[in-house]
Specification:
3 strands, alpha+beta
């Protein structure tokens, strides 16, 4: 079974750079506490790396 990542926004995007705000939106995160489940692929890993200081990531099955 393919791995998936649960990504949860834990910090505000207000004082962040525009590309980081755009990345959060691309992940589907709009506000603190929002969570999304995304496939564990290179694109998602890149998004998470860009905003690692704003999100919490958990691997799920």
């Amino acid at each position: 079974m393919a791995q998936r990542l649960k990504v949860t926004q834990v910090k505000s995007k207000v004082s962040e750079k525009q590309n980081q705000r755009d990345t959060l939106r691309s992940l589907g995160l709009k506000r603190i506490g929002d969570s999304v489940v995304r496939p564990d692929d290179a694109q998602t890993r890149g998004y998470v790396k860009t905003v690692a200081h704003l999100v919490k990531v958990e691997e799920i099955d």
